[in-house]
Specification:
Shape: globular
Organism: Bradyrhizobium jicamae
Pfam families: PNPOx_N
Number of domains: 2
CATH class of the largest domain: Mainly Beta
Number of helices: 8
Largest sheet: 7 strands, antiparallel
Radius of gyration: 19 Å
CATH topology of the largest domain: Pnp Oxidase, Chain A
Helix content: 25-40%
Number of strands: 7
Protein name: Pyridoxamine 5'-phosphate oxidase N-terminal domain-containing protein
Low-confidence stretches: none
Strand order of the largest sheet: 2-1-5-6-7-4-3
Structural class: alpha+beta
Amino acid sequence: MSDLAPSDLATIYPAPSPRVIAKARPEIDTHAKKFIGMSPFCVLATSGSDGSVDASPRGGNPGFIHVAGPNELLMPDRSGNNRIDSFRNIVEGSGFVQLIFFVPGIDETLRVGGKGKVSVDPELMASMIEFGKPPRAVLHIEVRESYFHCGKALMRSKLWGATQVERSVMPSIGEVIHDQTGLGARESQAEIYERYKEGL
């Protein structure tokens, strides 16, 4: 398999239409704000100083990411695995971030790009209590671009209409990590679920 040269791409893909180019907006408009307000889930992508890339799932109640202005988003950071790959990339790398927002039942997604910085301002964190506790930190995003993706990817995947698999077809995450590392307990999925509920 040979690698494509940049010039080869133009022979495979036609140029995007003016409408596709124009839909990229420099701010969060009314439609994007409404979409973010309905979104309980997004993926945050960051890049490190070494050129590595990280993508991290983020979730909460619909609207858990706050639109503080046309060019300002605030994302609370909840408890996780403490690897802090995303935040390390932001504070050590370029600071550039990309988010893709999902709303269950809507095939279109929203991409937002900008520059992030991490805040631990007590007043800001106190204003973002969810699940009975404040976040550990808040990601402040200076929005530079926002645009909607067409729904083809989600339509192909039938994501919102797909039959959910039984959880039992896959070992629990505790069993998977134990098998991979030999560390920690081989917790059942029920045990993990109860522990997760404590740490939301």
